[in-house]
Amino acid sequence: MKQHPTLRVETLVGALVTLTGLGLAGGAISIPGEAGYGGVGPNFLPWMVAVVLTLCGVLIAREALTGGFRDMEPPSGAERGWWPGLVWVSAGLLLNAALITTIGFILSCTLCYLLAVQGLRRAQGQRATSARVLATDLASGLLISAPVYWAFTKFLAINLPGLTNTGWI
Amino acid sequence: MDIFASLLQGFATAISPVNLLWAFVGCVLGTAVGVLPGIGPAVAVAMLLPITAKVEITASMIFFAGIYYGAMYGGSTTSILLNTPGETASMVTAMEGNRMAKSGRAGQALATAAIGSFVAGTIATVIVTLFAPTVAEFAVKLGPPEYFLLMVLAFTTVSAVLGQSTLRGMTALFLGLALGLVGMDQISGQARYTGGIPELLDGVEIVLVAVGLFAVAEVLYFALYEGRAVETQNRMSRVYMSRRDWARSVPAWIRATFIGAPFGCIPAGGTEIPTFLSYAVEKKLAKGSDKDEFGTAGAIEGVAGPEAANNATVTTALIPLLTLGIPTSNTTAILLGAFQNYGIQPGPQLFTNSAALVWALIASLYLGNVMLLILNLPLVKLWVQLLKIPKPQLYAGILIFATVGAYGMRQSAFDLVLLWGIGLVGVLMRRFDFPTAPVVVGMILGPLAEAQLRNAVSIGEGSPRVFVERPMSLALIVIVVAVLALPRLYRFVQARKQRPALLPHGGVEP
Fold first, then answer.
1. Residue A109 is part of which domain span?
2. Distance from A26 to chain B by nearest Cα, in Å?
3. Which residues of A touch B220 (CB under 8 A)?
4. What is the 8-class DSSP label of residue B354?
């Protein structure tokens, strides 16, 4: 019998948790266990967390394979995800990470904002490509990023990267 | 008398123009994040944690506290007008509040919520003032075994009791504990799970986890699943309460305050139980036409009670945070992180070592409550305007603030990639109903609990018997077991009771 897609993902979630537990166990092997006269060394909690997480993962997978997660609130939103939305927002976040030290906080965050708004508008079924919409989003992105940059760097002395050394852009 | 003098000293510090300004900005920001969907007080405080590097501790804690309880006031506005509670604390308010708004009584619902929050917040602050020093004096006598078990109690309640599924709650808690393990071991100095990356020796930043799990995950989730969701907003009406509304609200506020306050005091936080309990009490006590309004036109007691209970719990939750160093919610966990950024560990010594800070913070709660009443009653129509911000722009804007929080702590672009990764985990957790609070609490409290455990076992010279030989720690073990076992026992007994009743009709028994 073919498994329902949700149950397949639930099984995957269980497998992921199990793998995390096993990975932690793998890491715990290299942690020395000398406890001094205390009896509990630095490897005690890592082992405990690894064992419990592995067990939780197995139990989660078992729930998934025997009818699905128990006592679960139905998730909010659509039954199926709209993946392009996720891609747009992810692109904004990752480009921000890649460019923030090169083009500075203001421009990098404006780009992140622009891409995220594109994805979120499209997710809502809005038109997002007209020149007017793009110009508005670009302007609003700049209008948020620039004051945030100035407020945090000038008033709160928090170190955020700039395009120039002037401290204004 | 000592308390009174200390409090007066606290007021003297809190009313300095700079601190008043921080309190006011915190209250405004808190109300805004409470009103706005997709961003709560935990995220707001987490995103602003980098300010701890520059702003003086008293000012920043007053500011964070303003955000913390300001969000509770603002949260009711969204619950009542949109029926989309941003916080679990506002879930019950949404039930009756939204019905009242649909019947054209949004103004009355908003008024009773704001005044109720003020009454409960103020009474709860008096409780904090009177009892926190006493708890601190008592807490000095607690040793590592008791501290460790208090933390186990907090872990148990936050993961096993408050969520839908104990298994998923435990998974979330242990994920948090795993994150807390990354970095240098506090006692032996041994590096754990750093993968040879020097930046990880300092551990994973709490800002990254909180902002990723709450803010970034919310934006990604919206883009993926909620873009087409249709939201309707109830119409505003004049904010006033009739004589009858007052007569129905005042007893509900008082009752709810005394229901909510004890729940905040114990390391078993969460506002779900007291708000639901208050709702159930009000429904039970209502008579005649008032009772008929529950679930139909919306009963004012059903808003007044839960909203007051929520504020009382949130305020008294500062007692375990300040006196024991134990957070019982997302936001208090991040407030603990803020203290740690200053190299201060909240606990019984805080009242002696940092008395000026603690009392200024408590005094600021009184001032903040007054500010919030003014901000939320006459100015409520202004806050409602925030609900008009289109979600694409609002959510994309949140990402800019998320960048400040994540990048501002360590100036590492890699942290922004990690932020995205944690956001994806948050989407998965939300989709499959894994609670997120245990992750944050586990991550922050995990290393502290480990240190207490190791100290406790050292005291016992390697023997775990130290946990059962001391009366207080034994009592805590009993409480932890009871918290875990009693709900299951109750369900088992209920199921047994129902089975014979089903037999004549169901006939499933062989």
1. 83-155
2. 10
3. 86, 89-90
4. T
